[in-house]
């Protein structure tokens, strides 16, 4: 196959259904289509944020887009199995290794960690970050509704919405963060926390790799602004890459970066979105 070779080794296929850049000058985003329920709301929200969006699992679409969104609802083990079925894990890994932006949502965040434990069964995750997804120790699960977040200083993903509430639908979460920055010139990930029964990770920003436990596409104006921040970063030539002083550092362990925790789990007065995609 002929085509332009990108820095991560991917090839832009001249016959691909989606190429870079878009004719309108919009950043191109592929939402990974691997059977994860109703993802149309995510597609529409990304389009409103200024991206040209397609829903696809074709390797050329996944690798060639400016940004890749990995949605996810349901069981950790099921999502991992469905991702493997479309070669999603390898394709996501290639993008991350090449500094190409990826955004995980809900279980799309969870599977980036080392493992998930549901109903006494442990399943292996992608291992981009250390940690285990476990049942939230709350009186009521799933955690469904609006909640506050504690955003670390320097967050670009949450710029302008640091004090807003976001919409969560999940029963499991990562409740500890242990991450070593092995090389001094590598910046540790920025971790945003929320709380339901116990503190849990609400979002991670790690160079080109970002993820949220909440659903930005269901989070009203705050979620729209967050998605706009992510899409807007794709417009810059350096989007998804970092300087030598802020290189991506995934797959390590034992750091205290951004360990401040939220003070409460106050919900917003607003009601739930019109439709749900399940609990994770």
Kindly estimate the percentage of residues that lie in beta strands according to DSSP.
25-35%
Mean model confidence by pLDDT: 82
Proportion in helices: 10-25%
Number of DSSP helical runs: 6
Low-pLDDT residue spans? 1-19, 238-248, 251-270, 274-278
Distance between the terminal alpha carbons, to the nearest Å?
39 Å
* CATH class call: Alpha Beta
Q: Calculate Rg over CA atoms.
A: 17 Å
How would you classify the helix and strand content by structural class? Answer: alpha/beta
| Count of separate structural domains | 1
Strand tally is 15
Q: Can you list the strand order of the major beta sheet? A: 4-3-5-6-15-14-13
CATH homologous superfamily identity = Class I glutamine amidotransferase (GATase) domain
Biggest sheet features: 7 strands, mixed
Q: In the CATH scheme, what's the topology name? A: Rossmann fold
CATH architecture: 3-Layer(aba) Sandwich
């Amino acid at each position: 196959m002929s085509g332009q070779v990108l820095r991560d080794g991917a090839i832009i296929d001249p016959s691909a259904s989606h190429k870079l850049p878009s004719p309108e000058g919009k950043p191109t985003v592929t939402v990974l289509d691997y059977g994860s329920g109703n993802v149309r709301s995510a597609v529409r929200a990304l389009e409103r944020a200024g991206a040209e969006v397609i829903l696809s699992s074709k390797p050329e679409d996944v690798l060639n887009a400016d940004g890749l969104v990995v949605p996810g609802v349901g069981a950790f083990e099921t999502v991992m199995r469905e991702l493997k079925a479309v070669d999603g894990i390898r394709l996501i890994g290639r993008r991350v290794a090449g500094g190409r932006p990826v955004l995980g949502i809900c279980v799309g965040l969870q599977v980036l960690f080392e493992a998930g434990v549901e109903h006494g069964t442990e399943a292996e995750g992608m291992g981009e970050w250390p940690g285990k997804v476990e049942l939230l120790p709350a009186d009521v699960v799933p955690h469904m509704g609006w909640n506050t977040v504690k955003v670390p200083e320097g967050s670009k993903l949450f710029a302008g919405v640091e004090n807003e509430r976001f919409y969560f639908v999940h029963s499991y979460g990562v409740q500890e963060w242990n991450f070593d920055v092995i090389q001094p010139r590598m910046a540790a990930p920025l971790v945003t926390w929320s709380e339901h029964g116990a503190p849990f990770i609400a979002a991670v920003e790690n160079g080109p790799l970002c993820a949220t436990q909440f659903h930005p596409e269901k989070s009203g104006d705050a979620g729209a602004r967050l998605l706009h921040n992510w899409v807007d970063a794709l417009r810059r030539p350096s989007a998804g890459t970092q300087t030598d002083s802020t290189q991506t550092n995934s797959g390590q362990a034992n750091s205290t970066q951004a360990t401040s925790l939220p003070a409460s789990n106050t919900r917003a007065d607003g009601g739930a979105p019109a439709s749900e995609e399940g609990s994770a």
